[in-house]
Amino acid sequence: MVRAGLAEKPKVEKPMNFKFPSPGHLPPPVLAFRDVSFAYPNCQPLYDNVNFGVDLDSRVALVGPNGAGKTTLVKLMSGELEPSMGDIRPHMHLKMGRFTQHFIDVLDLSKTPLEFFQTLYPGDAFEELRKYLGRFGVSGKMQVQQMEQLSDGQKSRVVFAKLGRECPHILLLDEPTNHLDMESIDALAMAVNAFDGGLVLVSHDMRLISQVAKEIWICDHKCVKTYRGDIQNFKMDMRSQMGITSKPVSSLRGDASVMKAAKPTNKKDTPKKEKTTKSVSITSSVNTKKSINKVVEISNLQNKPSSNATAENSSLSKLGSMPSSSTSD
């Protein structure tokens, strides 16, 4: 094909198929916070008397200013941190899968993805592990490449594959899209929407939040409040708080809107220029005739006393009556 001057047909990559298997049913309450307060040592409290619950049908997005304690709240849910006061009561059979901003810490970077999964699941067949990793976009040479040589986005896929094998009841995802491309983000959103368990998401990606979240919890002022409204209302409220006003947008797009905006200007400007040009030309011709007539009158007054120049005066008056011919000469 190359010799014939034809380019090779591009290879179509297999679509990613993230999947989190069904964890099974757990009766509520699955995870309950009762009068929970928390403060880091020698610091002001981040939370004070917080009460809420998370179940398998929860689809929660945690939002709030930086430093308000969103990641801290996820750590309290997972049991990594203990509350200063109050009780956190998880179901005795609850399993949680967590994706953190330091997700690389759960990987052994000295191994390849296949070696890593063989260590975790020694009873699984080699080919089954290859197929499973391929669903999360870890395929081909990537499977046998040392993970420290992979990009952060590729490492993220390995972590999501690990989460899928753990079969958690609740997913705790803290900024999961930081290193993912658009295709991986869409695959993640589809997997979360098909998941039968609960979700608690910390993210600044409004596109992902609008795809997967059913509730918005605002973390601020030492408390957690449920936002009354959908994601579109929340985005409009955020824009108004930031002083961003929406400008009216024309129904036309692209070149059509430019042409539409340009037409009135041309219609108004062009006739004005033509009228100005015509008025100038008319004024100049009138002024020229007046000036010529004045010259003739002055010459007539100067030559009137001389009786011998009557013939010359008559000839000058005839010339003064024909300005156009003199201008053309």
TrEMBL record:
<feature type="compositionally biased region" description="Low complexity">
    <location>
        <begin position="314"/>
        <end position="329"/>
    </location>
</feature>
<keyword id="KW-0547">Nucleotide-binding</keyword>
<feature type="region of interest" description="Disordered">
    <location>
        <begin position="299"/>
        <end position="329"/>
    </location>
</feature>
<dbReference type="Pfam" id="PF00005">
    <property type="entry name" value="ABC_tran"/>
</dbReference>
<keyword id="KW-0677">Repeat</keyword>
<dbReference type="InterPro" id="IPR003593">
    <property type="entry name" value="AAA+_ATPase"/>
</dbReference>
<dbReference type="GO" id="GO:0016887">
    <property type="term" value="F:ATP hydrolysis activity"/>
</dbReference>
<dbReference type="InterPro" id="IPR050611">
    <property type="entry name" value="ABCF"/>
</dbReference>
<dbReference type="InterPro" id="IPR003439">
    <property type="entry name" value="ABC_transporter-like_ATP-bd"/>
</dbReference>
<protein>
    <recommendedName>
        <fullName>ABC transporter domain-containing protein</fullName>
    </recommendedName>
</protein>
<dbReference type="InterPro" id="IPR027417">
    <property type="entry name" value="P-loop_NTPase"/>
</dbReference>
<keyword id="KW-0067">ATP-binding</keyword>
<feature type="region of interest" description="Disordered">
    <location>
        <begin position="246"/>
        <end position="285"/>
    </location>
</feature>
<dbReference type="GO" id="GO:0005524">
    <property type="term" value="F:ATP binding"/>
</dbReference>
<feature type="compositionally biased region" description="Polar residues">
    <location>
        <begin position="299"/>
        <end position="313"/>
    </location>
</feature>
<feature type="compositionally biased region" description="Basic and acidic residues">
    <location>
        <begin position="266"/>
        <end position="277"/>
    </location>
</feature>
<feature type="domain" description="ABC transporter">
    <location>
        <begin position="31"/>
        <end position="246"/>
    </location>
</feature>
